[in-house]
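Sample intake sheet
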Amino acid sequence: MPLDQEPIEEKEMSFLDHLEELRWHVIRSLCATVIFTIVAFIYVKWIFQNVLLAPAHADFPTWRALCKIGEWTNNPDLCIGDIPLVLQSRYMTGQFTITIVAAFVIGIIISFPYIAWELWRFIKPGLHKRERKNSTGVVASISLLFLGGIAFG
């Protein structure tokens, strides 16, 4: 095995030590998710009005762009007004449940870069020097692609 393939000298760990290390990475990730879930739950009304239900308002960027395209092409049908959207629940606990679920999903989304970083911190010591060098910036690229996908969605 070439020298660049040798793992970086780390302390030898037993299987149970690895499980303990993984346990702490998972606990820190869950703590971050819980903290962001609580913050999202506190601001859930603002999140629903300004993020989730924003496309129902005429001043949404997509609708403004379509309206400008409609003006350029003399097609006034592309301009829309506010969409009268009323949220309804058919179940007794539906509103509370959707609030909890939305806060949890938002908590996962916001904490995902930290979760990826914690996962990387667990995996990194087991890699060879060359593998570490080739995977530089993996957490940043994972986070950027994930948040870009969320923004696109």
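Comment: The radius of gyration is 23 Å. The chain has one domain: 15-152.
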